[in-house]
Amino acid sequence: MEGSWWRRFYSLAHPLGGFIVRLLRRVGLQIDFRKMQLLLYRSGLGGKVDPQSWLGLKATFSLLVALVLAFLFLILPGSLAFKTVFFLCVLFLGFRFPDWRLESRGRERRKAIDSQLPYAVDLLATCCLAGLNIHQAMSTVLAEIGGVLGEEITVSLGQLELGMGKDEVLKEMRERTASHSLVDFFSFLFRAEKLGTPLEDVLASKSRDVRDLQRSSVEKKARQAPVLLLFPLVFLILPSFILLTVGIFVLPILKM
Description:
Elements: H1 4-26, H2 33-43, H3 51-75, H4 80-129, H5 134-145, H6 147-161, H7 166-177, H8 180-195, H9 199-255
Helix pairs in contact: 1-3, 2-4, 3-4, 4-5, 4-9, 5-6, 6-7, 7-8, 8-9
């Protein structure tokens, strides 16, 4: 999200979002900015876009959709009532689409974190077995993995260095990533550090647990695949098969 065009667009979206907030407050409506901020953080845009600007971006997108619909409103046939209902429905979808895209991006980030975590735990266990302390091992892991998981671990370690409590760090991580595996791993590390348990043994055990959890998740998705295939099979493939097999006998009878 860099470039002069984005900065100009963003500079227009922020005041537009502020105008919408003031307008809604005048009519007694409040916007849940906390939920919007949560979506932005989970999608990776928390440090780049604030909720007010995101509201302005959504309004701008809706206005662009409205302009396209206004043109279609004039050229498409149909009654005025149908066009009005169609216009309002698509305008609502245009306003909600950016939020749906945020939620989708947040799910993609969570899946990326969960997929990188087993390798990161294995690498951390290997570094500790090689004689590195937890801080040196974590630095090695961060330099190796990078990506979304590296970003989230860097943020959490920075919060710890600034003096934030471990419970609050876990809470922030849970809200920011929605990754139960990552939160459980850090909670496991904090508990092992508090009890003075040797990290080499607990990390090897945790690595097996994370891989078993990932394997069970894949097996669960594999078991759900036949159920998901029922819809296209029953409503798409089966009717086509019936038309091809029975239709050749029914059509001549209908033509008689």
